[in-house]
């Protein structure tokens, strides 16, 4: 991955990962996998309309196999709950929202790759997302709300190597990729027919638009 200081002369990442979040069924997991997604998100955060139970998540994870990353999404949940869920649901990474300590993140990172979610107001001064098991991810203040961020305003502070979420969909992902050059894009609301149920056309169009945008950036910059 090409990295650099936040904002300054950011390169084009070698790969753009695409994550389709809020998967609640084997049917939708296979749809995302067939559309070419690199990762699916399984939400365990309390109160989410897309929350999935651990046994259903396990069936979903096993259905897509090792070729698609299974990211468990948690919000202010105890460490032992996250670790037990990750094991039972066969997660390959955990995404952590909310107020947690660096000790908590460090302990989790001993066992699983961690996506640490930040809101726009927390971005300043983060620098580059660190090499290693904790990767930064920018999301809207109200996750899963479909609210898009002001990418141009965040450009100077967006850490190289970070993931991007927040109101992304087939119609705007190309612009977000062009402005912020994230290492990965993640979406849920704009890919749904109803909460927790995917719209196949939107999922396919999102993956396609993200890939095309990344290819165009690579071509422009002369990267292979
Ligand atoms: O989607 C939810 O219901 C949710 C609830 C609580 C914590 C996280 C949640 N979603 C996490 C995601 O990774 C979403 O894909 C991300 O917030 C983007 O959502 P959207 O803006 O709706 O595309």
From TrEMBL:
InterPro entries: Aldolase_TIM (IPR013785), PRAI_dom (IPR001240), RibuloseP-bd_barrel (IPR011060), TrpF_fam (IPR044643). It comes from Deinococcus aquiradiocola. Its EC number is 5.3.1.24. It comes from the Bacteria. Keywords: Amino-acid biosynthesis, Aromatic amino acid biosynthesis, Isomerase, Tryptophan biosynthesis. GO terms for biological process: L-tryptophan biosynthetic process. This is N-(5'-phosphoribosyl)anthranilate isomerase. Pathway: Amino-acid biosynthesis; L-tryptophan biosynthesis; L-tryptophan from chorismate: step 3/5. It is an enzyme of class 5 (isomerase). Pfam families: PRAI. Residues 18-208 form the N-(5'phosphoribosyl) anthranilate isomerase (PRAI) domain. The lineage of its organism: Bacteria, Thermotogati, Deinococcota, Deinococci, Deinococcales. It catalyses: N-(5-phospho-beta-D-ribosyl)anthranilate = 1-(2-carboxyphenylamino)-1-deoxy-D-ribulose 5-phosphate. Gene3D superfamilies: Aldolase class I (3.20.20.70). GO terms for molecular function: phosphoribosylanthranilate isomerase activity. Belongs to the TrpF family.
């Amino acid at each position: 991955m090409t990295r650099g200081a936040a904002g300054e002369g950011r390169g084009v990442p070698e790969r753009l990962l695409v994550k389709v979040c809020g998967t609640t069924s084997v049917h939708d997991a296979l749809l995302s996998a067939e559309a070419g997604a690199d990762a699916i998100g399984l939400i365990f955060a309390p109160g989410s309309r897309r929350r999935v139970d651990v046994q259903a998540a396990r069936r979903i994870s096993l259905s897509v196999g090792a070729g698609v990353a299974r990211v468990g999404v948690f919000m202010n949940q105890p460490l032992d709950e996250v670790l037990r869920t990750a094991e039972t649901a066969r997660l390959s990474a955990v995404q952590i929202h909310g107020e947690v300590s660096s000790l908590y993140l460090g302990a989790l990172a001993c066992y699983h790759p961690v996506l640490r979610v930040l809101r726009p107001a927390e971005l300043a001064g983060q620098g580059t997302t660190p090499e290693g098991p904790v990767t930064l991810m920018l999301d809207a203040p109200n996750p899963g709300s479909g609210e898009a961020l002001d990418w141009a305003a965040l450009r100077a502070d967006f850490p190289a190597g970070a993931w991007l979420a927040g109101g992304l969909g087939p119609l705007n992902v190309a612009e977000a990729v062009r402005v912020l050059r994230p290492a990965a894009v993640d979406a849920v609301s704009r890919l749904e027919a109803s909460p927790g149920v995917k719209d196949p056309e939107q999922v396919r169009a999102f993956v396609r638009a993200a890939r095309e945008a990344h290819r165009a950036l690579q071509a422009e910059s002369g990267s292979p």
